[in-house]
Amino acid sequence: MRANYKLQRLFIDADLFAGGLVDTTREQAHYLINVLRLREGAEVLVFNGRDGEWHAELAEAGRKVARLRLKRQARPQTPLPDLVYCFAPLKKGRLDYLVQKAVEMGAGVLQPVVTQHTQVARPGTERLAANVMEAAEQCGILALPELREPVKLDRLLAGWEPDRRLIFCDEAAAADNPIAALSAVEERKLALLVGPEGGFSDAERAQLRALPFVTAIPLGPRILRADTAAVAALAVIQATIGDWL
Question: Between 1.20.1340.10, 2.40.240.20, 3.40.50.1000, 3.30.1300.10, what CATH number should domain 9-75 receive?
Answer without folding.
Answer: 2.40.240.20
